[in-house]
Amino acid sequence: MRHLLELLDGAVSRSYANMGIGYRPRYTPVLRALTVSQRSTVGEIAAAAGITQPAATQTVSLMIKDKLIEEASSDDGRKKLLQITEHGRTLLPQLQGAWEATARAAASLDDELPVALSGILHAAIEALRKKSFDERICEASSELSRTPE
Question: Residue 25's domain is classified under what CATH number?
Answer without folding.
Answer: 1.10.10.10
